[in-house]
Design goal:
CATH architecture of the largest domain in chain B: 3-Layer(aba) Sandwich
Largest sheet of chain B: 8 strands, mixed
Helix content of chain A: 40-55%
Mean pLDDT of chain A: 86
Shape of chain B: globular
CATH architecture of the largest domain in chain A: 2-Layer Sandwich
CATH superfamily of the largest domain in chain B: Response regulator
CATH topology of the largest domain in chain B: Rossmann fold
Number of strands of chain A: 20
Low-confidence stretches of chain A: none
CATH superfamily of the largest domain in chain A: Histidine kinase-like ATPase, C-terminal domain
Low-confidence stretches of chain B: none
Oligomer: heterodimer
Shape of chain A: extended
Helix content of chain B: 40-55%
Number of helices of chain B: 13
Number of domains of chain B: 2
Mean pLDDT of chain B: 94
Number of domains of chain A: 4
Number of strands of chain B: 15
Strand content of chain B: 5-15%
Chain lengths: ~525, ~400
């Protein structure tokens, strides 16, 4: 083979594009990889094109993505040719190619078109990793600075308090010091909790889980959480009821509102704290109003900054971390909910958050699985199980628990009365084996237990003994009998009838003498 | 397995009609992969465990059936599941019972073929409380107070619904006046029960009794001296028997169903064809249940490649997998099985997207000759809620 022919074949076989331009700027030759990338099957169809013609053609015919106006792009590309500048081209299949022009000895230019997609993706992912690592370092050091900043004070107090406590002369003094130690520890706890929140927010680890729920759930928890504290301070604490479905992250929203209420109770010495809601277009505004010292308008933005405290004159502010509102604001940002504040110094403040109203139909009931444990006919009832055989007893207990029952197991039959009196719930149903250890009969136990209970409890007797006379005698005492092994459907039918349709239980309704 | 001779005989006739209609339609298009569907009906009488188990044994042992598709049998406590699981065939029923979830989840491998073609009754309770809250929050109704009274029937179905209602009240800002009052079927002492409830002055009274006759007797008693509250009656009040007994007095009561016929083009077309075939007094809302499930079964079996008789569990596992995998837009709405419960997922109780669940429909009863007003949920509703006559009367409201 002639060297020229071999070279042409070699160039044709390359998996990247090559084009050769004459010194007048006309395309003399290109390989198939080059023409194909620009939507032309045959290299010959581009031969003889001037640079302008070539660029115009590929703009029309290829899947090149160009974001600048066509003429501007063509002029830019010609300048690149002339200045031997490299450029990257983006195609609609997501691939990125580099165009590289090199002058040839004796005139003309050779252009190489190479696929840079993978290289660029790797570069980008490396950049992302580097940014993430830098951010993580920044978060870590900020976390440590913050911890150092605010943990020192209660820690120092604690050291002094411990020393004083050792030296305390009286029980009273010791008690007071222990109380103060308790306060210091709770401040440290709060601080660590808040720092953890900040750390998670900084690291972008707080991902909202949006669901639909009733605002009353949040309001009720505010009532329980703060009523006692507010009343102890002599404040009039009111939570106005509201029934509106919200679409938000329940846990995050609760932390924000709880932060508003905690601040209101903390900084208000006299008067009242009111939590209420009102509709604002498609949102529900949850607002917390207090009769506290108020905030000057100049500080409306500052109060949401990290470690900001208006002044430490107020005794409570000495213990304030200056982090709560910052966390609340950042959580609200994560949720895309608007927080606002209005205040009159000397009269009080109102903090509010606007939450999108949801459809009550979509309310999340918080039950991952709908089964008999959460909603069956026996759910919430209590069964007393008396069975000596460990395996049978465990199987029965697990079945009853699966049906949503609370199960109490009785494994000692002497001294029965105190054991029954100690039970947390009175049973709704007793299931007993007939022959128990120590020649004890289940039916006798049931009678004894029912004498102790306020209201007699229906019972089922299970037995492995199939003697017809025995079964008849148990039934005549008014107990339905199930033969071991007991099948869940038959147990279910008997339990249902005993609890809800006793007229269907022949042993009770007396409709049979032997079944 | 349908209760042709018991207290649910009227429904059983509709179940039979639905099966006949679906089988004819499928057979006219050459059946399942060329094999015609042959139907066998077994009477389950009063729907007790022995009757239903006997029916299942007979269908499997004598007729060698490949699938059992039903309306409902609500007294068997799933006893028939054992016979069906042993045979390894497909079983689709409309028992509307939470027990189904429990049994299937207790051993998914054994009960692979057992499906419930409608949502569990549990959803009635939760859905009703959401419905009430929706009326309140959209300003369609301003309750006088937040108190709810519940009367429960004594069947597991009624007890579960009453419990589900009771447990959801608090979360939606309602107060239960007392634990649900459980009453016997055919109870006679309605005066005493209603007086007890009247003393609590509830804004809502819900009864979860099941049988139309019981509900009708209760309703007539209620209307003698109506309480100033919204009244909800369980599914039985959907039946023609109820309207025939209470007449005009039924107007204004709320009733719901987790499987019914939406009034869209598909639902209306089915209702028209059904009544043309089975007469103006037939009830397509009931007949649509097995009709829908037989069609879904035929599609699943065709995709699986064949049907399997008793002992061919491996084949039927494929069919079961297709029932789970292929959502079916039936005449009643979307049949989409929950992968763990193997029962149909309800909309809007469990999913936000109406294309992914069977609609839980709420109606307001009108006059005896008028169509019920379908008032919720969107996008199926075609009417607005109106205050019941006993509440819109100024002297009462």
């Amino acid at each position: 083979m002639e060297p020229a022919s071999a070279l042409a074949k070699g160039v044709e076989a390359l998996d990247f594009g090559v084009a050769v331009w004459s010194n007048t700027g006309a395309l003399q030759f290109c390989n198939r990889a080059f023409s194909r990338r620009f939507g032309k099957a045959s290299p010959e169809s581009l031969a003889g094109f001037s640079r302008e013609e070539f660029l115009g053609e590929i703009l029309r015919c290829s899947d090149l993505i160009v974001t600048t106006p066509a003429q501007t792009w063509i002029e830019q590309q010609i300048a690149n040719f002339e200045n031997n500048e490299r450029d990257r081209l983006l195609f609609s299949d997501g691939s990125i190619h580099q165009l590289r022009h090199t002058p040839m000895p004796g005139g003309g230019t050779i252009t190489v078109l190479s696929d840079f997609t993978e290289i660029i993706r790797s570069e980008r992912s490396l950049e992302k990793e580097r940014d993430k690592s830098a951010e993580s370092e920044r978060v870590k050091s900020r976390f440590l600075r913050a911890a150092n900043h605010d943990l020192r004070q209660p820690l120092a107090s604690l050291k002094i308090l411990i020393y004083n406590c050792i030296e305390a002369q009286s029980d009273e003094e010791r008690e007071q010091l222990l109380h103060n130690m308790d306060v210091s520890v709770s401040i440290m706890e709060d601080l660590l909790g808040a720092l953890l929140n900040i750390g998670q927010l900084d690291a972008g680890r707080v991902e909202p889980k949006i669901s639909t729920f009733q605002v009353s759930m949040i309001l009720e928890r505010m009532q329980i959480q703060f009523e006692h504290l507010a009343t102890e301070k002599g404040l009039d604490f009111r939570v106005m009821p509201s029934n509106v479905a919200l679409s938000s992250d329940r846990a995050l929203l609760e932390r924000i509102v709880s932060n508003f209420v905690a601040n209101a109770v903390r900084y208000t010495d006299t008067g009242r704290v009111l939590v209420g809601c009102r509709r604002k277009g498609r949102n529900l505004r949850i607002q917390v109003t207090d009769t506290g010292p108020g905030i000057p308008e100049t500080h409306y933005e500052d109060i949401f900054k990290e470690f900001f405290r208006i002044s430490t004159k107020h005794s409570y502010r000495k213990h304030s971390l200056g982090l709560g509102l910052n966390i609340a604001k950042r959580m609200a940002d994560v949720l895309d909910h608007r927080i606002s504040v209005t205040s009159t110094p000397g009269k009080g403040s109102t903090f509010s958050i606007d939450v999108p109203i949801g459809s009550v139909w979509h309310s999340d009931m918080g039950e991952p699985d709908i089964n008999e444990r959460v909603g069956g006919e026996f759910s919430g009832l209590t069964a007393l199980v008396i069975e000596d055989d460990d395996i049978l007893r465990d199987a029965l207990v697990s079945l009853l628990e699966r049906w949503g029952m609370t199960v109490i197991v009785l494994d000692r039959y002497d001294n029965l009365q105190p054991s029954i009196a100690d039970l947390e719930n009175e049973p709704d149903l007793i299931i007993t084996d007939y022959r128990l250890q120590g020649a004890v009969q289940g039916t006798d136990l049931v009678i004894e237990i029912n004498d102790t209970l306020e209201k007699p409890c229906p019972a089922i007797v299970v037995t492995a003994d199939t003697n017809p006379d025995l079964i008849k005698s148990i039934r005549q005492q008014g107990f339905p009998v199930l033969i071991k092994p007991v099948s869940p459907p038959s147990l279910r039918v008997t339990m249902h009838n005993l609890l809800y349709e006793p007229e269907l239980v022949p042993e009770i309704s007396g409709r049979t003498d032997d079944g | 397995m349908i209760p042709l001779s018991g207290p649910s005989a009227a429904d059983a006739r509709e179940f039979r009609n639905g099966m006949l209609m679906a089988a004819d339609e499928i057979n006219q298009r050459s059946g399942i992969l060329g094999r015609k569907i042959e139907l066998f009906f077994e009477d389950t009488g009063s729907q007790s465990a022995p009757e239903v188990v006997r029916a299942a044994r007979h269908l499997i042992g004598h007729h060698n059936v490949h699938a059992i598709i039903n309306g409902y049998n609500i007294g068997s406590q799933n006893s028939e599941y054992e016979v069906i699981a042993d045979a390894g065939i497909i079983y689709i029923h409309h028992n509307t019972l939470l027990q189904h979830h429990d049994t299937v989840m207790s051993d998914p491998d054994r009960y692979f073929g057992c499906f419930m073609g409608d949502p569990a009754e549990y959803w009635y309770g939760q859905g009703f409380i959401k419905f009430l809250s929706w009326l309140r929050e959209t300003g369609q109704w301003e309750p006088r107070n937040s108190r709810i009274a519940i009367i429960s029937g004594n069947k597991p179905y009624s007890v579960v619904i009453a419990n589900a209602m009771a447990s959801a009240t608090g979360q939606f800002g309602w107060d239960l006046v007392k634990r649900p009052i459980v009453v016997k079927s055919s109870t006679e002492n309605w005066d005493e029960i209603l007086d007890d409830i009247r003393a609590h002055d509830p804004a809502v009274l819900a009864t979860t009794q099941f049988y139309s006759g019981d509900l009708a007797r209760f309703h007539l008693k209620f209307m003698e001296n109506p309480l100033p509250c919204l009244l909800y009656l369980q599914y039985g009040a959907m039946h023609r028997t109820f309207s025939e007994i209470v007449g005009d007095k039924g107007k204004g009561a709320i009733v719901g169903t987790v499987i019914g016929l939406p009034r869209d083009e598909i639902g209306k077309n089915f209702a028209r064809m059904y009544t043309e075939r089975f007469g103006a007094n037939s009830t397509p809302e009931v007949g649509c249940q097995p009709y829908t499930s037989l069609h879904h079964y035929a599609i699943a079996a065709a995709i699986a490649g064949r049907t399997g008789g008793p002992g061919e569990a491996q084949v039927n596992r494929q069919v079961a997998q297709c029932l789970l995998n292929y959502t079916y837009r039936s005449v009643a709405g979307t049949i989409r099985y929950h992968p763990k419960w193997q029962s149909v997922v309800p909309y809007p109780d469990a999913v936000r997207d109406p294309s992914l669940g069977l609609p839980h429909l709420f109606y307001q009863i009108q006059g005896p000759d008028q169509e019920r007003a379908l008032i919720a949920p969107e996008p199926y509703a075609d009417s607005q809620f109106e205050l019941p006559p006993w509440l819109s009367d100024a002297s009462v409201g």
